[in-house]
Amino acid sequence: MIHSMTGFGKAVVELPDRKITVEVKSLNSKQVDLTLRMPPAYRSVELELRSLVATRLGRGKIEMTISCELSSGDAVLAQALNLPVLNAYKHQIEAMAAQLGIPEPQDWYATLLRLPDTLSTSNDVPDAAADELDALRGAVNTAIDALNEFRAQEGRRLEAFFEEKIAAIQDLLTNEVPRYEQSRVDKVKARIIDALSKLEGITYDNNRLEQELVYHIERLDITEEKIRLQNHLNYFLQTLHAAEPGQGKKLGFISQEMGREINTTGSKANEAELQNVVVRMKDHLEQIKEQVLNVL
Known about the structure:
Strand order of the largest sheet: 1-2-4-3
Number of helices: 8
Number of domains: 3
Order of helices and strands: EEEHEHHHHHHH
């Protein structure tokens, strides 16, 4: 079965003095692209968590947000005000205003908080305790489980969509294309003979004419394209129903090959009705290509 790359998962773990919340969402991407936001207290396990997410989610544009809230309801701040630095800045600004004879700022908060080093760095925050980090790991795994379940649900929807579109192309290939193949050849032959009959005073060798007609018609033959397209349709469904997820790139490659055969059929069509069938095939195929980008 296939999985979508789109999904969302959330997990909450309660500790005696705090609550950890993990939210993770993903969109389609050619490779894993992880953005991780978390309190500095958890920095010691950042690389471990990044590796875990990459291993379990495969690929996708992934955003994971980890927050921690105290039991009182206050959030654990990622950064804190650096009061000694703020105080030093304020005294210097007051001294500057007195010396230069200019007014002091009307909005001290905006002025001071724009200055460098007014917030403490993450190095000032101690690492979380071992039991809290274990709880964090569990929450991350639970959130990933929820996201993978979401991906599986979306995958089932995509699978039904692909089956419908492949069946539509199969119907056109099996029932519509053959209707115009022979009539197309007959029209080409009639058109050439009619053109020759209008050339007064010109004689031609019937045997040579037959050879040229055979050569011209063989150039328009689409038997090989039909066989290859049928093989690609079968292989697409076989890949779609594979037991393990992760077939997105392969399905993309197969759909490209399907496009080549459909395009070649269109270039050889030489018949308005058959061209219309090819256009309908292309329409179904473009919808497949669009949605394949979302497959893991």
